[in-house]
Automatic annotation (TrEMBL), chain A:
PANTHER family: 30S RIBOSOMAL PROTEIN S2 PROKARYOTIC AND ORGANELLAR, SMALL RIBOSOMAL SUBUNIT PROTEIN US2M. The gene is Mrps2. It comes from Setophaga kirtlandii (Kirtland's warbler). It holds the Pfam family Ribosomal_S2. This is Small ribosomal subunit protein uS2m. Keywords: Mitochondrion, Ribonucleoprotein, Ribosomal protein. It is found in: Mitochondrion. Required for mitoribosome formation and stability, and mitochondrial translation. GO terms for biological process: translation. GO terms for molecular function: structural constituent of ribosome. Transmembrane segments: none annotated.
TrEMBL record, chain B:
Pfam families: Ribosomal_S9. Its main location: mitochondrion. GO terms for biological process: translation. This is Small ribosomal subunit protein uS9m. The gene is Mrps9. PROSITE patterns: RIBOSOMAL_S9. One of its GO terms (cellular component) is mitochondrial small ribosomal subunit.
Length: 216, 369
């Protein structure tokens, strides 16, 4: 059992997540498009490649690196049987995110976030509840363009977060930020597809390793 | 334990005689923490199972006691047996002794939502309102399906179906019914959002595809008249068709027999209406059903009435005659009569006088000093 858990940690890319996407895929899905110059957040400036006709363009090389790290991390969490919670407060993509979560066998929360969900869980849900081990934000802002409460709560509860940060978002408290567009449908579908494929791959690999262990 | 020595008090600062024993008598009920704050009682599955076993055993014992066959002992027999063995004079039926299957006694509850490894079963568990949000998710999925189907039809240039659903005969589920269906609380906002989504779904042209799904949330509203049985006409020895009706108003009770092929003669307790009701208003009340249907000179009426005053008797006879006339008339006209208020029993009765007041509403004269 120990070997099962320590073996993936010795490889830099055990689940070969680099194969899942290329720079061209990101470009075709319009991931590099940011908001206008006036909406720019100060902490996003390192991730921005440039500004064209007042619209910010996100640096896709950095996005590639961050995306690879984030997908690798989610794969490891899924391999160890962790609970993954998809969070997004965009009404357009609420259905898409929920269906992705269902397809992976993980959980989603694309509705109104009640204050004590993570911090007051034992009273809201009942004693003995297990909190999520990873939060994936497909959009860090809520409906009033403020940072989602879950980022702060996850930081309080020591839960790692992976988040797609647009040019108007604050990447500070997110453990694995992914600078990229969170407004276009194509970009969101791409992210959902990538997360779904990594999680399914990681779970399949876990089942295979367990089967091999049992045979020995 | 009534009477417990709770404290051993010491008088502060004083000299030699410092200790004073104070006997404080309390019960264990006061010492328990606030039990109500933990929420409604939760029943485990094992507890319910045990209750079911005990119920079945008790049922067989009861059957033996009553001398009947334990195998064919139904719930009605149980109720009768309990009413016989434990006669109770209490007015409230729910306060009397009761022996029912545990699933009817203990309200349905949510079992533990997660498995042994701690992973919840439902994918929307962390939202807090999993059933409601999964319902919204499903309904939205049906909505997207219908839109896709519509797009396909328009792409093939086929006409979209436009059969109008009968909106008058159905209503959506009420909030309480929805709460019962989902087994969790639904707020007013959430309920209205759900109904709006359903209405949007129904408004689409191709909504017939998801008819089965929509029917889960709509209920039939039977037209009022379907429940009331209108009696057919009877014929007396001379071959004249007649019909009877009963009516009441305040304390007056009346029965009326309306004959066909008449001249408009009306008799009350053997006396002609001109003599029985000298006031015009009462006679107008009697004639109103006939005038409404346009049959003033066509029917004869013989009525008996007792109780009440003149106005109450007039109202009672009016109701009785309207009920009798239903048999002579088409269904549409019956519906018109019902909407005119001719077939409704007037629920107004004299309000009781309350203590501390002079009448039902009038208070005693208020004196400033």
């Amino acid at each position: 059992d120990d070997k099962l858990l320590t073996e993936p940690l010795s490889h830099p890319d055990f689940f070969s997540v680099k194969e899942l996407f290329t720079l061209k895929d990101l470009f075709d899905a319009r991931v590099h498009l940011g908001h206008k110059k006036g909406c720019r957040h100060r902490f996003m400036e390192p991730y921005i490649f440039g500004c064209r006709l007042d619209q910010d363009i996100i640096d896709l090389d950095q996005t590639m690196q961050h995306l690879q790290l984030a997908l690798n991390f989610t794969a490891h969490v899924a391999y160890r049987g962790g609970i993954i919670l998809f969070v997004s407060r965009r009404r357009q993509f609420c259905h898409l995110v929920e269906s992705t979560a269902r397809a992976c066998g993980e959980y989603a929360h694309t509705r109104y976030w009640q204050g004590g969900l993570l911090t007051n869980a034992h009273i809201q849900f009942g004693p003995g509840v297990r909190l999520p081990d990873l939060l994936i934000f497909l959009s860090t802002l809520n409906n009033v363009f403020e940072p989602h409460v879950a980022i702060r709560d996850a930081a309080k509860m020591n839960i790692p977060t992976v988040g797609v940060v647009d040019t108007n978002c604050n990447p500070c408290l997110i453990t694995y930020p992914i600078p990229g567009n969170d407004d276009s449908p194509t970009a969101m579908e791409l992210y959902c597809k990538l997360f779904r494929m990594t999680i399914i791959r990681a779970k399949d690999k876990r089942r295979q390793s367990e089967a091999i262990e049992e045979l020995q | 334990a009534v009477g417990r020595v709770l404290r051993l008090c010491r008088r502060w600062g004083a000299g030699p005689c410092a200790q004073t024993l104070r006997l404080i008598c309390t019960t264990t009920a006061v010492q328990k923490r606030n039990v109500g704050a933990s929420g409604p009682e939760k029943y485990t599955e094992a507890f319910i199972k045990k209750q079911i076993e005990e119920f079945n055993l008790g049922k067989r014992h009861l059957a033996n006691m009553m001398g009947e066959d334990p195998e064919t002992f139904t719930q009605e027999d149980i109720d009768r047996a309990i009413a016989y063995l434990f006669p109770s004079g209490l007015f409230d039926k729910q306060a009397r002794p009761l022996m029912k299957h545990p699933t009817e006694v203990f309200p349905e509850q949510r079992k533990i939502q997660w498995g042994e490894d701690g992973r919840p079963f439902h994918f929307l568990f962390y939202t807090g309102k999993q059933s409601y949000y999964s319902l919204m998710h499903e309904t939205y999925e049906k909505f997207l399906n219908v839109q896709k189907h519509q797009d396909q039809l328009t792409a093939q240039d086929l006409p979209l179906q436009k059969e109008k659903r009968n909106l008058a005969g159905s209503r959506w589920l009420t909030k309480i019914e929805l709460e019962e269906m989902l087994l969790e609380k639904v707020s007013d906002d959430d309920y209205s959002r759900f109904i709006q989504l359903l209405q949007k779904l129904v408004a689409l042209p191709c909504a017939d595809i998801e008819e089965k799904y929509i029917q889960k949330f709509s209920k039939e509203v039977p037209v009022q008249l379907q429940k009331v049985v209108i009696e057919p006409l009877q014929h007396d020895e001379r071959g004249v068709a007649f019909s009877t009706g009963e009516g009441k108003r305040k304390t007056a009770r009346a029965t009326a027999i309306v004959y066909d092929n008449g001249t408009g003669k009306i008799t009350v307790n053997g006396i002609d209406i001109l003599h029985y009701f000298p006031v015009l208003q009462d006679r107008e009340q009697l004639l109103f059903p006939f005038q409404f249907l346009g049959r003033i000179g066509k029917h004869d009426m013989v009525c008996t009435v007792s109780g009440g005053g003149r106005s109450a008797q007039a109202g009672a006879i009016r109701l009785a005659s309207a009920k009798a006339l239903r048999s002579f008339v088409t269904e549409k006209e019956v519906e018109f009569m019902r909407q005119a208020g001719l077939l409704t029993v007037d629920p107004r009765v004299k309000e009781r006088k309350k203590p501390g007041q002079e009448g039902p509403r009038r208070k005693f004269t208020w004196k400033k000093r």
